[in-house]
Amino acid sequence: MSLATFLERTWSGLTGLVRPRSAASLFRLADQYRHEGRYEEAADLIAEGLRLAPNISVGHLLDAYLHVVFRDMPAAKESFRRVLALDPYHPRALFGLARIALEEGDIEGCRPFLDRAIQYFPDFPEAKALQEMVATWSAPAVAAPAAVGTISTDRLRPPPGARDLILTHTDGTLVFAQGSEERQRQLAQHMIQVYRIASATLARAGLGPLRRGVVEGASEMTFLRSDGGVILGVALPRDIDVGAGLVQVGRLWTDLNIKS
Amino acid sequence: MAEAQIPSEPTASPEATSPRGSRAQAFRETVFELIRLDGVRGGLIVTPDGLVITAELPPRFPVEALAALAATLGRELELGATRLERGAFRTAMFSADDGTVFVGGSPVGYLTLVADRNVNAEAVRAALGRAVDRLRGTWRNAGAA
């Protein structure tokens, strides 16, 4: 076989291998990769598919999902909106925007997306779970320290190394918190959100109301306690034993002499 | 109004894929390992976008609803840790009168376990921490490949 024939056959074989693929097949493969956790490869295929067919909603939906996985929420929001521009009642795009609004603390912004998704697709368990969860929420309120009521914060003896001690009512009203006003606001907002979402998760699993929580970060451990009326939270050094941390929180709870 | 059908996740189902050697296989093995611990009733891994990668829960558990809540909880814990400068979120446990929910955070998603009230919380938390480290490793290795 001559060199020219060999090269011609090789070239023909190669071009056969790289035949252009349709956008639909690219999205299908991208979704398969997404299910397998091969996100980087999926992202490349979605980008290629959207170049070929920029008006296919499933492509933008997959694009949004990948942005969420990479925690790029502004880009995810944009892609979910592109889906809605093509299909205004796409439930998964509505649900995606609801979840982003929720994590931004925009509860009022979250509700209409969930309502719309469920209005057209009543049997949508994920959206229903979030809709039921946010139904009774309101934005956390900040009360003056005088609004402590029956709870006495005078006898509090924070353990060594304690930080971010906070007490709020479960409706979000702040009773007491350490730190600057901005820190208190951030603490209260986060603790209420964690309490509400964890409570909804426990309830959905049929386990009852939240009593205690431990959140392990790379540099601190946060301990929570609640009786359904108030939530007490405190951050302790990372190396504390969980049992010892819970004992410390129990002691604070007793100090507060909480009567709910 | 007739009940409309929700468009399912785009095109593929987890069962339709071939997970051999993929991250998905590692995820499933991780969940299987954890649900063998005493007092652990079941578990799942859900990605931040709410996709259930693998779920091993008793039949009565509403998987989709739990996954949506677990993903929302995982994201809030992740965001809070960053905003409050507490270092990256690793694990959490929330106990109630009738059981405990554990959540582990990783770039891949959130590993959630449902356990009995009297579970050895420290043992489960330690095992969950190791699993989270493995998931982080899976993510880093694939990213470096």
Describe it for me?
The complex is a heterodimer of chains A (260) and B (145). Chain A has 260 residues and is α+β, with helices and mostly antiparallel strands. Chain A folds into 2 domains: 3-134, Tetratricopeptide repeat domain (Serine Threonine Protein Phosphatase 5, Tetratricopeptide repeat); 145-256, 2-Layer Sandwich (Beta-Lactamase), CATH 3.30.450.30. Helix content of chain A is 56%, strand content 13%. Chain A is built from 10 helices and 5 strands, in the order ααααααααββαβββα. Chain A has helices at residues 3-17, 23-35, 39-52, 57-69, 73-86, 91-103, 107-120, 125-134, 181-204, 242-256, and strands at 163-169, 174-177, 210-217, 220-226, 230-237. A 5-stranded antiparallel beta sheet of chain A has the order 2-1-5-4-3, with helices on both faces. With 145 residues, chain B is α+β, with helices and mostly antiparallel strands. Chain B has a single domain (20-144), classed as Dynein light chain 2a, cytoplasmic (Beta-Lactamase). Helix content of chain B is 40%, strand content 23%. Chain B has 3 helices and 5 strands, in the order H-E-E-H-E-E-E-H. Chain B has a 5-stranded antiparallel beta sheet with strand order 2-1-5-4-3, with helices on both faces. In chain B, a hairpin with a 5-residue loop joins strand 1 and strand 2. In chain B, helix 1 runs antiparallel to helix 3. Chain B is globular and about 35 Å long. Residues 11-20 of chain B have low confidence and may be disordered.
